[in-house]
Amino acid sequence: MSEEKSLNFIEEIIEEDLQSGKYTSILTRFPPEPNGYLHIGHAKSICLNFGLTQKYKGATNLRFDDTNPITEETEYVDSIKEDIHWLGFSWSNEYYSSDYFDQLYSFAVKLINKGLAYVDDSTSEKIAAEKGTPTEPGKENEFRNRSIEENLRLFREMKEGKYKDGEKVLRAKIDMAHINMLMRDPIMYRIKHAHHHRTGDKWCIYPLYDFAHGQSDSIEHITHSICTLEFVPHRALYDWFIDKLEIFPSRQYEFARLNMTYTVMSKRKLLTLVNEGYVAGWDDPRMPTISGFRRKGYTPSSIRTFCEKIGVAKRDNLIDISLLEFCIREELNQTANRVMAVLNPLKLIIDNYDENKTEELTTENLPNDPENTRTITFSKDLWIEKEDFMETPVKKWFRLAPGQMVRLKSAYIIKCESFKKDDNGEVTEIHATYLPESKSHHDTSHLKVKGTIHWLNARDAATAEVRLYERLFKVENPAAEEGDFKEYINPDSLKVIKNAFIEPHLQHAETGAHFQFIRNGYFCIDKDSTPGKLIFNRTVTLKEGFKAL
RNA sequence: UGUCCCAUAGUAUAAGGGUAGUACAACAGAUUUUGAUUCUGUAUGUCGAGGUUCGAAUCCUCGUGGGACAACCA
């Protein structure tokens, strides 16, 4: 309690409600529509809704907003539940808006009886035309003043399947001239002869969002119904239905959704990326989906930390993806075992090392824990990274170059004596000599070298496929660019290295395990791995402090 | 053109009438058997104009800028 942490505006509202005695505990809900996979923006909402009821006394329901049978599927329901659990949250109740279809139907009848709803036979085009524009009022039509009895009969017949899709709708009778277009007799029910993933063929009329969401909140006695800014204009309607129905007064509060640089967040666009094959699926590590980040190697806590750091407010935002990257690096730096992997191999031969000798060396798994070690092997034939040799070094080059010395991590200091090139001028082989007295932990050479590079014993290194991911888009904010967002997709967002070299013991590591490939970044084992073929995904690069070019 | 929402370093987010702070990013230096980590430091900000006040990022007015709203989507 000593540390005063500032509250976001929703926490302030909740503390007021608790202090005033309006509520003694709070109830929130996370209300996804099961028509796609959850993304990092949903993670923000999940952390907010569940975080609030962890912080204050309360509970959070998971409610699937499944009022549109056309787009919703069970596959999505399952993935959503998995993602929420993975993030580390548990819901008190699992509900579906479709659980309330009977009750919603009787709510509608109640409004008809109060003279506050009517059946409209108009086409959708006519209804749209009569709605007016933001600056011009709408027009009332001939169906608006049907008798209560007729409305009751017609609505019942709609439910009974007497009419075809689009033939009739049920509308709230509010005010066709209202300044808020959503209040111009909004549609409550439409006819859809479609199979619903939960209610099957029981219904052929389905409520729209505005006549389902607030009512569902109210039925569950949600105290704080938190949603994103685009629903601000809906709040008037939300309150109107609650008022006229005389039901529990849930209240809606709106915050700004998350946007992140170099990606898109709209479900429609993410679906396009999946359907048109720009990525391999919803859980492709390039996707900003929760399952994508999971597969890429992000941890639940890193995502929660991120959501904590970005804050909650009402202004539109575009969060720098480097903040997310910071969160995962910060965690993995503490927890991921260091190993050596050579992604772009170059042969290194130690000319003065015994041809028949294989030496065992000790190296640490975590830099801050010198006791925690493993054994690696060293021989005359090694692999190093192509990038660690430069024939004509640039200024401040600390790595290998003709005549230059470096330390091989946890092994010896070596000096580059010569190198070979092929016909294309590609360097193919480096020859070096080592200093026996410079062995790590037993160094009596008193030599100081600027650079340390990683390496692998070519005689026992294993191979693996390594997938390097870059940002999915070339521009910071694809959604704000002109034209089709697909034009801004980064064509080099995935680079596959088929035959990288890794330490042999990694072959026994488990799917999902996290490692730092020293000087290369953080990697995890992809689920596509098979016993004979390991696949690593790059979670994130290391922070790059030196740019050679 | 109407209504609503919003405006603080590059990006986010605090300060709720009394010292403009924090994080990420950037840059510089130190340390380093990862050019990582760690440490130290630097630069950059209250959209504008009026008003209220001893005092305004904060309250008021008017501008300006950005966003949302005319789906039988959510």
Name the features:
RNA-binding; alpha/beta; 25 strands; seven-stranded mixed β-sheet; 3 domains; Rossmann fold; 549 residues
CATH C-level name of the largest domain: Alpha Beta
pLDDT below 50 for ≥5 consecutive residues: which ranges?
none
Largest sheet: spatial strand order: 10-23-24-25-21-22-11
Characterize the largest beta sheet: strand count, sense, and whether it forms a barrel: 7 strands, mixed
What is the H level of CATH, i.e. the homologous superfamily of the largest domain? Answer: HUPs
Radius of gyration: 31 Å
Helical content stands at 10-25%
Number of strands: 25
Percent strand equals 15-25%
Briefly note the CATH topology name of the largest domain.
Rossmann fold
Gross morphology: elongated
Distance between the termini: 51 Å
What CATH architecture label of the largest domain applies? 3-Layer(aba) Sandwich
- On the 0 to 100 scale, the average pLDDT is 96
Polypeptide structure, described:
The protein has about 550 residues and is α/β, with parallel strands linked by helices. It folds into three domains: about 10-255, Rossmann fold; about 260-335 and about 465-540, Glutamyl-trna Synthetase, Domain 2 (Glutamyl-tRNA Synthetase, domain 2), CATH 1.10.1160.10; about 340-455, Ribosomal Protein L25, Chain P. About 25% of the residues lie in helices and about 25% in strands. The chain is built from twelve helices and 25 strands. The strands form six sheets. Strands 10-23-24-25-21-22-11 form a seven-stranded mixed beta sheet, covered by helices on one side. Strands 19-16-17-18-12-15-20 form a seven-stranded mixed beta sheet, with no helix packed on it. β16 and β17 (about 415-420) form a beta hairpin. α2 (about 40-55) crosses α11 (about 300-310). The longest helix is centred in the first third of the chain and has 16 residues, at about 40-55. It is elongated and about 100 Å long. About 35% of the residues are buried. The model has no long low-confidence stretch (mean pLDDT about 95). It binds one RNA strand of 74 nucleotides through α5, β6, α12 and β19.
